[in-house]
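Minutes, project check-in
Item: structure for the 112-residue chain
Input as provided by the requester:
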Amino acid sequence: MPVTVILGFLLLLFLLRLSGKRTVAQFNMYDMILTFTVGSVLSSSIILDNVAFLDAAIALASLIAMDYVISLVIMKFDGVRKLVRSQPTLLVFKGELQHANMRRNGLSRTRS
């Protein structure tokens, strides 16, 4: 298991470096789904005996390649960009909560 952990981590680090900074610079729901999926594949290869490391490596490379292709398509087509990536929402402006924007995003003010 330790060898699989080390190899899996190094492979993932290498693949994410290849995919570019966009992978972590602008984290949104699409990126969260991709992150969970990649984490699930890697953890399966570490924990489950019936998942070969080579199969997991191919799955990880496929996911990162798919992300790269989707990124290229997003750069060329605004409609796809709007479908895949959400726009940021202003929640506080000049110290004032933007209640309408908060409601649209299912957020409420809570006190700590």
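Outcome recorded: The CA atoms of residues 8 and 42 lie 6 Å apart.
No further action items on this chain.
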